[in-house]
Amino acid sequence: MRVPRFVGLMAVDARAAASARGLFLNSPDRPELSGVVVDYVVRQFPAPGAEVPPDSVVYVWFDFGDGEGGGGVREPRLPAPPSGGLQRELGEPGDAFEMIGR
User: Fold this and answer.
1) Where is the region Disordered (predicted)?
2) Domain-by-domain residue ranges, the chain?
3) Fewer Cβ in 10 A, N or C end of the chain?
């Protein structure tokens, strides 16, 4: 049997999809997987499409590990950057020729 893609599914949907195919889910970062409902699967092992025997365990994660990044903050930040496009960078204060002569 081929492992379906669980990444992107909510926990409740991933459990239902696994159960319908005769697979079991295990989550190292959520010991109480049955209580997780609206978290999204971000990683799985074995990979989607891998051949496994029936009644196999598929590991899913709902959190990125340390240093693996994530989606970041998606809310708008205020104040917004000024309009008008790119601005020319200003030089250092003082006379440029005076600094070169030293």
Assistant:
1) 71-94
2) 11-61
3) C
